Amino acid sequence: MALLNFKRKTDTRAANGDVEAFLNDYSIEVMPRTAEKVEDFRAILPEGTRVYIAHIDGTPIEDMVATAKRLSADGFQVMPHFPARIIANEAMLGDWIARYQGEADVKQALLLAGGVNEPKGAFDSSMQLMETGLFDKAGFTRLHVAGHPEGNRDIDPDGGEANVSAALKWKAAFNERTDAEMAIVTQFAFEAGPIIDWANRVQAEGIGLPIHIGIAGPAKLQTMIKFAIACGVGPSLRVLQKRAMDVSKLVLPYEPDDVVAALAAHKAAHPDFAISHVHFFPLGGIKTCAEWAMSRGGASARPAAVSA
């Protein structure tokens, strides 16, 4: 069998050291249906990359576990979503945990409320999932929770941050009294300034959890705007709206160079800045996003050589 060596592609916008450091050990998100389109994740993602598996309402748990099993077998860190509002009860939660562990050796989870308005069962929030103690009993070593740099009107209808902030403080306290490694992984946004301000406020409130900032990977502008609106992205949507008004840029894909470069520069100047990692939402495709990250110098490591 031939041995293929995958090398970092050159790019005219070669990554500077700040961006390369900022993108190191990035994570990425997939869904079972998008994962099916990827022939070999090892050819496009750095070895050991953390891969989140988004659990959209209606996706069978069998598909989620099969995707986790495939990624785990390929050597990736697998972190499936556990959306509280689509989990009927503790029995279902325990069953999901057992399946992930027994079939895919999963020990990490992203806990979140989920994208449905009304709970389908006993759980309404990620905090209720944590309070069951089932993740601790099962030996999960890492639990991530959701963050919202531009607020979340489902949680704070008035547009403020009071409820979101209180929830993060509760989760930080939970982290202090348990052995789980925890972090905040956020919704994506398009402006560095508001992200920096939010991260600093979180830190100032005594919430010491590291932040994995959500970044939307390269995609067609129309696709990006559609997802941004659907996901409730806030004021930073104006970055896309302004771009859409420029005819010369309308047909070009959106790429997150500006926001990543600004955040990287801030992190380099302020090493104690709470944002520690980048988490990609590959809205324009997993391969496209992975190639963008690689071309900017960021990686957990370079993609492993794989046998043809």
Automatic annotation (TrEMBL):
This is Methylenetetrahydrofolate reductase. The keyword Oxidoreductase applies. GO terms for molecular function: oxidoreductase activity. Keywords: Oxidoreductase. It comes from the Bacteria. InterPro entries: FAD-linked_oxidoreductase-like.
